[in-house]
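Comment thread on ticket #2218

A.B. wrote:
> Attaching the input chain for the structure job we discussed in standup.
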Amino acid sequence: MEHTSIFNPPSKRFYSTPELIDFLHEYAGLTVTKSTVFKWSMLGKIPCQKAPNGRLLFPCEAVKKWIESGSIEGEG
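C.D. wrote:
> Ran it. Output below, let me know if you need it in another format.
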């Protein structure tokens, strides 16, 4: 029986840029560079938001849906 407690860590909500690059490679078989990720984010082609410190954060579920929708096709 699965027991949930307040001590279980929350599931990951956001990817950092390096985590996103790894995820895209593992999940979608894509090899992208940091500059491609930054370009996509600046053009609004990938789901992302800026943290208060200026870092880009990529919502995990939104990125999965973005890949599954086929929106990533032809990106680059």
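A.B. wrote:
> Thanks. Noting for the ticket: The first helix runs from residue 17 to 28.
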